[in-house]
What we know:
The complex is a heterodimer. By secondary structure, chain A is an alpha+beta fold. Chain A is about 50% helix and about 30% strand. Chain A contains five helices and four strands. Chain A has helices at about 1-30, 50-65, 95-105, 105-110, 115-120, and strands at about 35-45, 70-80, 90-95, 120-130. The termini of chain A are far apart. Chain B is an alpha+beta fold. Chain B has one domain. Chain B is built from four helices and four strands. Chain B has helices at about 20-35, 65-75, 75-80, 85-90; strands at about 5-15, 40-50, 60-65, 90-100. In chain B, strands 2-3-1-4 form a four-stranded antiparallel beta sheet.
Amino acid sequence: MGNVMKNTLIYSAALLITLFIYSxxxxxxxxxxxxxxxxxxxIVNQENKAELSEYLDKTLQVFKANGGKPxxxxxxxxxxxxxxxxxxxxxxxxxxDQKIKEMMKSKDFKNLGELRSRVFDKLNLVLCSEL
Amino acid sequence: MEENKTFLVITxxxxxxxxxxxxxxxxxxMQIFGQNGGKPxxxxxxxxxxxxxxxxxxxxxxxxxxxxTIEDMVKGEAFNSLxxxxxxxxxxxxxxxxxxx
Lengths: 131, 101
């Protein structure tokens, strides 16, 4: 009877350890999943520069509401070559391509269209995957 | 508070005629970045251009210690020795020294 108890305890412990390892791996899984990225390159319209921060705040809200997570936001300090170098670059990760496409068709995103065209002289929005 | 880091942001449109040379160029240039302390942050390829004309097809972000390191690297022999291939491989190339914005 003592041996049966001992074996039961060992099996239970082994099961708990297995479940613990499995749950840890399950939590890590989303980080290794393929994500979709919205890459934004822009040249600011200097005449309407004052409206830029308002636009960025509102857009970021729309991104976040659609599952977007900022990966990086960069401002140019020097162009080393090339024409029409972007002055601002932003990378936002989304769960998948479809989320990005749906967001761009949404009312919230389209409502910012007028402000967007005032704020930027040139704007590229590109759906990307990791290379 | 996060310190102001320096990044080299590269956006490019590939010259389709010489697309076969892209992997060789990327391999060589990434080696030079590494030798100059560059740490890759991300590399992306375009799946779909959603807004704008002449959208980049490839984009890379590499972190460096400071802007001077990037300037010196770009003036360096190793980087310049790739100039011919670079001109063949890309029909449009922008290299931008950036900081967190």
